Amino acid sequence: MPPEARWAHLKAQAKQPTIGQLVDDAMAGIERDNPALRGVLPKDYARPALDKTRLGQLIDLISNIRVGDEEARAKDVLGRVYEYFLSQFASAEGKKGGEFYTPRCVVKLLVEMLEPYRGRVYDPCCGSSGMFVQSMEFIKAHATGNGNGGRARADISIYGQESNYTTWRLAKMNLAIRGIEGQIAHGDTFHNDRFPDLRADFILANPPFNVSDWGGERLRDDKRWQYGVPPVGNANFAWVQHIIHHLAPTGVAGFVLANGSMSSNQSGEGEIRKNIIEADLVDCMVALPGQLFYSTQIPACLWFLARDRSGKGGSLTRSYRDRRGEILFIDARKMGRMVDRTHRELTDEEIKRIADTYHAWRGVGADGSLPKYQDIPGFCKSATLEEVRKHGYVLTPGRYVGAEAQEDDGEPFEEKMKRLVAQLREQQAEAAKLDAAIAANLEELGYGG
């Protein structure tokens, strides 16, 4: 950090009319000494339209927030402040906000289920890099075990691509502010894949839902479409196949898609989904509750794919059982709590329940660290490939998990029916009395006929 960019220097000059130019100089100095940020930081604080008095007041205000001392750095206060503003901007922007921000609880669920301790981590539509930040936080949080050898080493390589230039800059800043190194490329993932030879161990993504103007008509013969050519009018299965294309031989992927991807048969999508299922790539499907996303009210789901489900190769971090010919379905639609009038979020306990269910099903808990997996009506079901075929290759969890078991209240059926019938008769008698009273009132008012 060059001297002219240090906060103490800017704070001391906050009330000077040249503060805008000083902030621009600070940004230029940071870019000069940090090649990863070259061309990323904003440098327009000296523009005449910006009130320099207000800018100085903002610097004074921020100076009162403890972000740089040892305790604050340990808690990643600056990074959390950055994420807070991202979430607030996403909420204010509504639909457009979803282009750069995936709700923290959704990212955390993906990361907890995939456990990216080490290896190559890739996000083909990385937004503001939330997947990578959460992956690093996961490693730190689980530093005392669970395959990480008791060390919080960030033994992962990060690769991301983002098509929106402003969002790409946000992503670069989000990583830099936390000291995370990564290769974040700018460009259209479909038409200018910046990592064509990458085979990732973990892929996490939240692609934009149901994109119709993705330029698919120019990619009819693309080598990525191994399971069928995706329709020009919807990019969902272009994203799915791009992700599969970039998976390493033992790689795993978890990503968000619109619910329609689980059941659509339009424009050949059903055939593509069938081919992916028959290739034994689908590991788990999770139906999410509504109102989780800032960008859309469209119900969403999580797809989890694995290249090798034999249990022989395992992954870089775990050994698993042979899951070939099986798919785990989890219905989490009833989970979550409302955090404001329009948005819901999954709690840490709910995230743990979903992730533990997946890990137990994969066989991670064979050492006794997790309860043995079992189907729970209304929540989870391990279905065979033959069952999925019978359902026409539809992957909607609700079709498989069944209805939630109702708790037995201990009242014998005969007694309950007698009580309910008696209660119905009382209510019908009360209704007759009310009807008679209303008729009498209408008669008095001259409306009896």
Topology at a glance:
Layout (H helix, E strand, L loop, with lengths): L6 H6 L6 H15 L18 H12 L6 H5 L2 H17 L10 H11 L3 E6 L6 H12 L13 E8 L2 H12 L6 E4 L13 E6 L30 H10 L1 E12 L10 H10 L3 E6 L12 E7 L19 E6 L5 E2 L5 E2 L2 H15 L17 E5 H6 L7 H4 L11 H32 L5
Parallel strand pairs: 1-2, 1-4, 2-3, 4-5, 6-8
Antiparallel strand pairs: 5-7, 6-7, 8-11, 9-10
**Spatial extent as radius of gyration:** 27 Å
CATH topology of the largest domain: Rossmann fold
The strand count comes to 11
Number of domains: 3
Class of the largest domain in CATH? Answer: Alpha Beta
How far apart are the first and last residues' alpha carbons, in Å? 89 Å
Tell me the fraction of residues in β-strands, as a range: 5-15%
Instruction: Supply the number of helical segments.
Output: 14
Structural class estimated from helices and strands: alpha/beta
Architecture per CATH nomenclature, i.e. the level-2 architecture of the largest domain: 3-Layer(aba) Sandwich
CATH fourth-tier homologous superfamily of the largest domain: Vaccinia Virus protein VP39
Largest beta-sheet characterization: 9 strands, mixed
What coarse outline follows from CA principal-axis ratios?
Answer: globular
Global mean pLDDT: 86
Topology order in helix (H) and strand (E) letters? HHHHHHEHEHEEHEHEEEEEHEHHH
